[in-house]
Amino acid sequence: MRVDLTGQVVFLTGAAGGIGSATARRLAACGARVVAADINLAGADQVAVGLPDAMSVALDVRSSEQARRAVDAVLERYGRIDVLINNAGVNTFKDRVDIDAFPEAEWDRVVGIDLDGLFVVSRAVVPAMVARGSGRVVNIASVVGVTAMRLQSAFVAAKAGVIHLTRSMALELGPKGILVNALAPGSVLTEGTKALFYGDDGTFRAQMAGFMEHVPLGRPGHVEEIAEAILFLCAPQNSYMSGHLMMVDGGWTAGFML
């Protein structure tokens, strides 16, 4: 996809992860100046150092103070923020149990990062866009926010919240020149999913093999494929889409395959 993002400043949370780092590289290749934000500062540094014009910031998305400091640092260096990609997120790996046994602390951790953190960062970044009268926000949701799955109630609830919050943000920010959309990846090959679902000793490897029989494309997605979809939502040519949920799931939610 040919997209010119020259001069655009992109604030990307969860930049050290698989989808985050792939997105940083893809947008930078289109000319964007990327702010790699992550609680893992060493990982964010590693992403930023490999890009033509980038900076890294330490950010726990649950912290309003850290979000404010990060935004101040970006505005001091670049003077603007054009795109916010709320990509930071976690899921439950070891505590995959029904809700009657789901640990309260794990619920707080997942919802705190995946939903509350999106609110915290958006509230910190959006005023800079409002001041300019333009901007883009891309919220990374999940296919399970649409089609629920068992044993991950916190993640399912948080991502469903992200989807509806995206619509609310689009209603509120559209009149201020800001487009807000969400993207819902299906099962994607990251280090976490490789270990849990696709590795030879993955806890849910057998179940995932059966599940893939119901995904029309018959395979998980790659982080580069998710990055390409994010690029589309950031593209200047994509100028009349707001409040939309883009599914990038290999056909997972198209229907049930027999």
Structural notes for this entry:
The chain is an alpha/beta fold and 258 residues long. It has a single domain, classed as Rossmann fold (3-Layer(aba) Sandwich). 44% of the residues lie in helices and 16% in strands. The chain contains eight helices and nine strands. It has helices at 18-29, 41-49, 64-78, 104-132, 153-173, 191-198, 205-211, 223-234, and strands at 9-13, 33-38, 54-58, 83-86, 135-140, 178-185, 188-189, 221-222, 245-248. The longest helix is centred in the middle third of the chain and has 29 residues, at 104-132. The two termini are 34 Å apart. The model has no long low-confidence stretch (mean pLDDT 93).
